[in-house]
Write a structure and sequence with these properties.
Blueprint (H helix, E strand, L loop, with lengths): L4 H10 L1 H15 L8 H6 L6 H5 L23 H6 L1 H4 L1 E3 L9 E3 L4 H16 L7 H15 L3 H14 L3 H11 L6 H14 L1 H4 L2 E7 L5 E8 L3 H6 L2 H19 L4 E5 L6 E5 L23 H10 L9
Antiparallel strand pairs: 1-2, 3-4, 4-6, 5-6
């Protein structure tokens, strides 16, 4: 359920030091990277910068190496930034066999992130699993999906969980002061990078990439998830759509002022985040017309019911 959501929760609930780090990231690392005396200023004072560069945070990774208008220096220059970010402490382990996907190696703070996120879900659902770790989180997600009277109820509950990860004033300030900058592109760029940095514990390996915006331009405000762990472990279209995709799109648009389109692929379990792009109307969203996966834990029971009632396919998301 993504997207850079545990970043805010951990900063607020873990310690004031993490909140100071976040403010430092927003002011020094994202849209004032060249403040006099900062590590960014010292590192890049001799580099010729364009106005666009001043507005854009440094690229973490990109799936389109042939096109890059950002400096090649890594984003992480501040030691406190390195210490605080779980995904930067983690390593990407790539299999040597051609065609196999890379795997995410958990970082030192991932258990903390998972625990905080799971506690928010448990508080809202009113039930917890006996299983530890990620398996327990998936069981709580299943209970969240099954406890709602309708899919709409499930989505509303998921949005409340996402809101609880942040103090309300932080959401209001972001929406008021940051979202309007650069026609919304600055906020979209920032969120894409924070998502790639902090949410790999939930989704797996992800990279920042370029996406086409409604105004005809392109911007590196996308995040590509190679193989979403949340979808792969839940094995359920309904859980993906109603506890992740739709609630996350609603949360970013309504409470942070950043449009988001998420495009999960139920064949290879990848997912494309497009920050700065409005999602289509529900009746035009093909994701909502996807039938249940054959590997879904409830698929066999649904299939039996469908056959007994002469229904041609399983329920859609």
């Amino acid at each position: 359920m993504v997207s850079f959501l545990m970043f805010g929760s951990c900063l607020w609930e873990w310690s004031c030091q993490r909140l100071e780090w976040m403010l430092c990231f927003f002011t020094q690392g994202c849209f004032f990277p060249f403040t006099s005396g900062s590590s960014f200023y010292k590192s890049f004072s001799k580099v010729k910068m364009t106005p666009l560069t001043l507005l854009c945070p440094l690229s973490i990774s990109s799936s389109s190496p042939s096109r890059s208008y950002l400096p090649s220096k890594p984003l992480v220059q501040n030691p406190s930034f390195c210490f605080s970010c779980s995904s930067l402490q983690s390593e990407q382990v790539t299999a040597g066999v051609t065609g196999t996907r890379s795997e995410y190696k958990p970082g030192v703070f991932d258990d903390l992130f998972l625990s905080l996120f799971r506690n928010k879900m448990v508080k809202e659902v009113g039930w917890d699993s006996d299983k530890p770790g990620y398996d327990g989180l998936i069981e709580v997600a299943n209970r969240l999906m099954s406890s709602g009277r309708t899919n709409s109820d499930t989505r509303d509950t998921a949005v409340r969980i996402l809101r609880s990860l942040f103090p309300q004033f932080l959401l209001d300030l972001y929406k008021l002061f940051i979202s309007p900058l650069g026609g919304g592109k600055v906020a979209a760029l920032m969120i894409a990078r924070v998502t790639a940095l902090t949410c790999q514990w939930l989704m797996g390996i992800c990279t920042v990439n370029s996406v086409d915006l409604p105004d005809g331009t392109s911007c590196e405000s996308g995040v590509f998830v190679e193989r979403c762990k949340y979808l792969e472990e839940s094995k359920c279209v309904g859980i993906c759509v109603n506890t992740c995709k739709l609630p996350t799109q609603t949360f970013f648009k309504d409470y942070m002022g950043v449009p988001l389109l998420m495009e999960p692929n139920f064949t290879d379990y990848s997912c494309q985040f497009k920050f700065g792009v409005l999602p289509p109307q529900p009746e035009d969203d093909i994701t909502l017309k996807e039938p249940c996966l054959e590997v879904c834990p409830m698929a066999s029971r649904r299939q039996q019911v469908a056959r007994s009632t002469d229904v041609g396919q399983w329920p859609k998301a």
